[in-house]
Structure formats: structure tokens, C-alpha cells
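Changelog note: in this version the structure field was regenerated for every chain. One regenerated record is shown below for reference.
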Amino acid sequence: MEHWQGTRLTQAALAKALGGSESLAPATVASWENRAQPKLPPPDRLMAYAQFFATRRSMEGAKPALVPLDSFTAEEHEKYEKLLDELLELHSAASGTSQEVGTAPARRSWLFADEGPLTIVCAQLPDAQMPEMAKPENPNFTQLLSFADLGAMVELFGHARSENPSMDVFFKSNPQVASDDLTGHVAIIGGVGLNDIALRFLRDFPELTTLPVTQREDNEVDPYGEFFVTEIDGNEQSHLARWSDSKFSGLLEDVGLFVRMPNPLNSSRTLTMCNGIHSRGVYGAVRSLTDKRLRESNERYIAKNLPGSRFGILMRVQVIEGKAMTPDFNNPRTILHQWSAEA
């Protein structure tokens, strides 16, 4: 790690960087680095070590911090993999056990190394669908009731605040969005049907107009919503929601889309789109990387199969008893289409 020569880094600063949103005491780092009687760090901390020391950018901010893996260059990814392999070999030799990379989370998509902010943009319900309590003239006015995909927005807001406790995280409906809101990290919830901000991004920026997945509206194909279309080698394939023949079961399967890339309005920040044919597809796209039970394995899948700062996953979202289930990326039936590229 020649790029670290001459660098001063205290154990307290390193502990704060490695801990992210989780408290990590300097004494814990000191115990790992004690030459006389060292304690073995858990495997997820080894991955954080590799992530921190693989790039000099970990020290470029006001405070040392982890740089998100999806922003790594090809060279930084190579250094990360090499360093992680070395650390795992040393861990295995010291513990007498075999340690695989896949036993620990490989990345945290909603952890940001910079000061942000993050703005979550959610569509506003059309007037015809607005409940009475969402109208300002109502004495019990509740603004959140005017948001479409409210469940997905609340889920993402809570997780993002937990991951980034010192960062400003905002949620706004698309009519409330100001120009400054779009130059930080931006997460767009929902698709072009109701969200004008999503429409503007998809229409105006080449990075998004050339995505291999588009949405279309055709009542003869799907009378209930805008379905997804992928194009591979000139061949188009439609991806639709699946409905039960029984009126009591309703929607059985939705389709969700998760896209991450640098923000075209500020390339040092990220743009994330969580979309779906229906609201359960949107919710599934969000939950794929926030659900405590599945997010780590899904993050490992992305790290292994979708390197680079631009990637997308079109996924099936199972619906059971009316509730969207979190997609499992390691289930071969879940992924309908995926792609990745460097910035």
C-alpha cells in the first residue's frame, strides 16, 4: 500500500471510519492491532479494512471515511480484492478456519462517505386519488397522505437515516423539489407515470435514455400499468405483472427495477431509481437492499456480479396475501435482467 506511506491516521479516526453508522470504539481497533496480544476482528471488519485502504480517497474528505464500493475505479477494485484476499488468508491462518468472502457483507449501498445530502423524491397522488386528509383545507391535514408509494419512501428514509446519522436526509414530493435538491444524492421512488422528476431524468440525460430497460403503456398488453421492456441483441421482451384468476387473490407477482449510477447533475453524488409496474414492485426494489434478512446477501450478489458505479437489476417481486416479499437476488428466478458498467 505504497499510496499510504507518510500518512498519519489515528486509531480513533480509523474506528469512526470503519464503524460507519455503527459505533466502533477506538479500543476495539487497538485490540485488533495489538502486536503482543492481538484479537481477531470479525470478517465484516476485514472487508471494511480492505475497502478503506484500497483507495487514497478514504482520506480526502474532512474526516477519514469509507468510500462506497460502487464508486471504485477498476484499479481500486483490483486493490480491494487483493487486499481482502490477503487479510482473509491471515485471518484463516490465525484462527485455523477457512474464511470465504461471501460470509460477510461486501458493500452497503445506502452508506455514503460524503456529507450528502440525500433527497428522496416521491410522486404526489393525482387530485382524483387524494384522500380528504391530504388536502390542506382539511383540519386534519396530513401531508404524507398525498405521497404515492408512501411505504417505500418511509422504508428507504428510515434505513438511509440509520446508515448516515450525521447526513441530512430529506423526502419530498415531486412538486416540492427545488433545483438544489437534485445536485446531492438523489433517490427517485416510483416511475414516470406520476413522478415528473423521474420523467425529466429519463428524458434529458443520455446515461438514462440509453438504459437497456424501458417502460411502456399498452392497454392491450397490460391494462393495469406500464410494463417493462428489455432489448437484448435487437430482440425485445416484455415483463409484466402476474395476476390470479381468482378475484380474491389479485396480484401475484409484480416487477421492480433498481438502478444506481452517478448523478448526471453532480457526478460526485449518486442517482438511484426504485421503480415498479405497481407499488409493490417499487416497494420490493427498495426492500431488496434495506431488509435486514436479505440485504447482506443481495449486496454480496451485486459486488460479485455487477461491479462498477453504474448497474441495474430488473427483478420479480412476489406478492403473498397482498404483501410484497423482499426479492432474493441469489434465487435464479428473481433476476429478469441485469447490467453494469464503469462510470
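Spot check on this record: Residues 118-341 form one domain. Residues 98-105 have pLDDT under 50 and may be disordered.
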